[in-house]
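Reopening this one. Same input as before:
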Amino acid sequence: MPSRLRRLAPAGVLALAVSLTGPAHADDIPDAPGHRLVESYEGAPAAAHPLPGTPPPQHPYLAANGRSGMHADAAGSGTYPWNGPLGKAPTVDSEKMAALGGECATVTFDRDGRIVTVCGTFTGFLVKLLDPKTLATLAEYKLPQRPSTIEAITRLDFSKIFKDTSGGAYSYLDHEDRLVLADSRRHIVRLAHERTADGGWRFVVDKDWDLTSHVPHDCVSWTNLHPSGTCDPVTSVMPDWDGRIWWVTRQGRVGTVDPGSGAVRSVRLDGEEIQNSFSVAEDGVSIVSDHALYSFRAAPDGTPEVRWRETYDRGTGTKPGSVNQGSGTTPDLFGARERYVAITDNADDRMNVLVYRRDTDVPADRRLVCKVPVFGSGASTTDNSLITWGDSLIVENNYGYENITSLTLGRSVVGGVSRIDVRADGSGCDTVWESAERVPSTVPKLSTANGLLYLYTKAPNRLGVDAWYLTAVDFRTGVTRWKRLAGTGIVYDNNWAPVTLGPDGTAYVGVFNGLVAVRDTP
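Same output, byte for byte:
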């Protein structure tokens, strides 16, 4: 732990926990025993030091950058143009969304700052409209139950749920504040939220596109417990610069939907699997499978066409901390001087950060800009997107995390976070700093308004207390500035959900039992 972090005495911890958390209410996520034995706050408030640079282009068919989806924008940068908390006596609020489960992963914001999110429970996914201050539910829409949920219940194998990225886990808010997702029926659904006659709120289906003629859908259901055919879940959806909706499936199908005509086109990446989301820029769509990185564009009739393809080292198996054998990252589109795309590989000994040039006219021997090994030998992997700003990248190590049972009884991952910069002349990349912070499974985020990188961390604890912290790290130096206890116990495990920065400066974290909000004291 950096020496500049001051440690609080146990008596001070208890007093601070009471003063910062405030009175509990019925829907708070409960802490596990032992929360009084860990520190509530470490470090000191940070000063805001804005980062120079140009933000990613605003996508014409997405909500404003920072409001639209899990990775903050179409480029997947993981950056926000506004402040997150600076660590000024931060308060913590939480909202329990379900008796079992309830994690709210993708958090988006409409024009008025209301939260539009998808929360996963053990019975299914719920689309929710939340008050950003109180986290109270304003409206709710139930999505069809995923086959993996039924498999988990009938076969008592809950890993099916934890490694399923389909059915609405990835969604986006469009330029008219409508949430777009692919549900477990293989339909793309567009949901609007509107006022009701009594002054409340409701969700309405604005549009529905059926993909079943293009996607095998003989899936487990309560009336079909032992299907004999193929089931291919839709993983993610995103629009391109022309408004066409792209979609991908777990078994390597890539398709498009014309929102006007409803025409569907698709291709298959034979023998390849796609479990991540993807990124979009004006020059094309970047998708990574468990074998290769692709740049796509649409033919005049909407059929996906490969612009270029680059294979990478996929290793010899799935590591603890990965969903499948392949890259765990959504491609990041970035570059202050050239147009780059970055992913990680799945090399056996040490995972590598890979940076490529995006343009189609790049010679094959110049496509790869750099291949940088990160973290320790035999203990490196990530299943989360990188952060990119200018010519810089942030990568974290998720090696050792599998699901919410992985880190109980005070255990943690080996950890590590690194910043890597592409050289100004494009001749390679260099590691700028390395942090020992342990980030089991979160999608980290960066505020370009204050220069702080936000992580969700868990350190080993010899007393067996499972304490989870929102942690702020200086983007320039890698020094940890402060940590605030979010909560203790398995219900505060984020289980792959991201940190999200709200327009009002609140940091939200989806956790197993709901949603946590961390705010500076005014």
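So the earlier flakiness isn't reproducible anymore. For the record, The CA atoms of residues 56 and 267 lie 29 Å apart.
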